[in-house]
Structures are given as C-alpha cells and as structure tokens.
Amino acid sequence: MQLAVEDSELWRAFDLDATTTGTIALATGVVALLVVLLRMPWRLARNVMTIVHEAGHALVAVLAGRRLQGITLHSDTSGVTVSRGKPEGPGMVLTTLAGYPAPAVLGLGFAALVSGENLSAVLVIAALLLLGVLVMVRNAYGVFAVLVSAAVLGGIGFFAGPGVQAAFVYVMTWFLLLGSVRPVFELHAKRRRGAARDSDADQLARLTGLPATIWLLVLVVLTVTCLVVGGMLLVEPAVAGPL
After folding, report:
1. Model pTM?
2. Which of 11, 133, 164, 240 counts the most CB atoms within 10 A of its CB?
3. Which residues sit opposite 166 in a β-bridge?
C-alpha cells in the first residue's frame, strides 16, 4: 500500500504551502471531532476504537510474556482479549492498563509520522494492525468489523489519489487522538451509575490495591496528554504560519 506520490513530494505535488497544510489539519480535526461527538457517527466509528483498544491489550500481553489466546469483538462495541499467564504481577497490570491508552498512543505515533511527512507509514502500520487483529479474532462479528475496516483502508490506500489519502490519514489520526478520551469519560459515567464494575479500571484496582478512581485519573492523564502533544504536531504548520 503506497501513496500515489512520494510522501516528501505530497505537498509540492498539490502546491500546498505550510498555511494551506495547517488549514487542512484543522479542517480534518473538526471532522474527526464531529465524528466523536455526534451519536450515530460515533456509534459506528467506535468499532475502530475497540479494535485498537483490544490490540493494545494483545500487544502488551505478548510483550509481557503472556500467551495470547484470542480477541472477541461485539456488536455493542465492547471487546475482550484473553491471555494466559500469571494472574497478577507487573505483566498483568500492564496488559490490563494498555487498552484505553492504546488509541491515544497510536494516534500520537501517527501524528509524529504525519509531522515528518511519512504518510505511507501510517497506512502501512494501520494495515499491519488490522492484519494482526484479524489473525487473533475468535468470533464472526469481530471478523466482520475488522474486514470492513480493512476494506475502507485498502480502498483508500490502493485507489484514492494522494490528496484524499492525506486527508484520510489526518482524519484517522485525529480520530484516534480525540476518540481515545471519550471512552474514559463514558467509563466514569457508567461506574457512577453502578455499572461496568469489571472494567479495566476495576481490574487494575484489584491487581494493585489502588482505587479504580485513581486508575481512571491515570487513563485521563495518558489520553489527554497524547491528544495535546499529537494535536500540536498536527497543527504545527498552522501555528508556524508561512515562512
């Protein structure tokens, strides 16, 4: 999967200066924000957030030396990642912690690549992520959700022009950064209503002895920090202005 022109030549090919590039960054950020805030678009796009969330659990589980059993994705946009290993200890804590910050961390990485004009790398990494999740998915809806996401990514990567690809990469990066924050606050709201008592935050509380509220605060800090830093990387041309 590659861009129609080299990444470093993308803005020159469309005669885009820093100001125009900054405008595109801001416009795509608004689009992504609307997707996150509006109920119906969020309901559909949240499946992508769940895929990345579960991929975060799976990747850290493997890095921590745990044995990955599989991933299940549900139509209500929830998911479960099962791994085998010690039921406690640092590896289990890190595996449990990894889910909610995963989209934010991935978005931050994408923002760094976009800032360096490495747009094709974003598409390749996204494709590899979907492939890795597809291999580990253990239910029909999960396979369907990953294949739909892969079809969209493949259509953009192989058939769209460089301008559309660039806009897509910006929107995807913004969506990961902005969308990572909303699930944390949704989880807080559910816990206040007495629901979601087996959430990642509650599991972390049982594993560490620290209150779930503290872990919720940690998740907020991690996701918001990634959003701020990643957002600064994306809007840097707009802030810098013309040279």
Report:
1. 0.90
2. 133
3. none
Q: Is residue 208 within 8 Å of 93, Cβ to Cβ?
A: yes
CA 30 to chain centre: 17
b/e map of 51-68 (b: 16 or more CB within 10 Å)? bbbbbbbbbbbeebebeb
Return the SS3 of 76.
coil
Residue 80 DSSP code: E
Beta carbons within 8 Å of 47's beta carbon, 6+ residues apart: 73, 77, 145, 148, 149
Task: Tell me phi and psi for residue 98, to 5 degrees.
Answer: -70, -25
Smallest CA-to-CA distance from 17 within 225, 171, 241 is with 241
Residues 53-93 have pLDDT tens digits of 999 999 999 999 999 999 999 999 999 999 999 989 999 99
Lookup: tokens for 41: 């678009």
Question: Are 216 and 188 spatial neighbours (Cβ–Cβ below 8 Å)?
Answer: yes
Residue 72: beta bridge partners?
Answer: 80
Phi-psi label, residue 2: left if phi above 0, alpha if psi -120 to 50, beta otherwise = beta
What digits encode the pLDDT tens for the residues 187-224? Answer: 999 998 888 778 999 999 999 999 999 999 999 999 99
**What Rg, from alpha-carbon coordinates, does the chain have?**
18
233-237: long-range contacts, CB 8 A cutoff, minimum separation 24: 233/108, 233/111, 233/112, 233/114, 233/115, 234/25, 234/29, 234/111, 234/114, 234/115, 234/170, 234/173, 234/174, 235/22, 235/25, 235/26, 235/29, 236/22, 236/115, 237/18, 237/19, 237/21, 237/22, 237/25
